[in-house]
Design goal:
By secondary structure, this protein is α+β, with helices and mostly antiparallel strands. The chain has a domain of about 35 residues. The protein is built from two helices and two strands, in the order αβαβ. Strands 1-2 form a two-stranded parallel sheet. Strand 1, helix 2 and strand 2 form a beta-alpha-beta unit. The protein is globular, with a radius of gyration of 14 Å. The mean pLDDT is about 80.
Length: about 60
């Protein structure tokens, strides 16, 4: 396997573990959207590296 791929997987797992441990993700959120805006923002997450952590408000 590609070492760059393995590095990215390791970083994602570390991030998931930090979230599970209770790390506050609020400072990392780049944009807050409503639930109705999720479909249009999925494409944005795939193409725009500036908005990489979008939080959808359910209530």
């Amino acid at each position: 396997m590609n070492s760059n791929y393995l590095f990215k997987v390791k970083k994602k797992l570390e991030f998931i573990n930090a979230m599970a441990a209770g790390m506050d993700m609020t400072p990392m959120v780049t944009k807050e959207i409503s639930l109705d805006q999720v479909p249009e923002n999925l494409k944005l997450l795939q193409t725009d590296r500036e908005n990489c952590k979008i939080s959808a408000k359910i209530a």
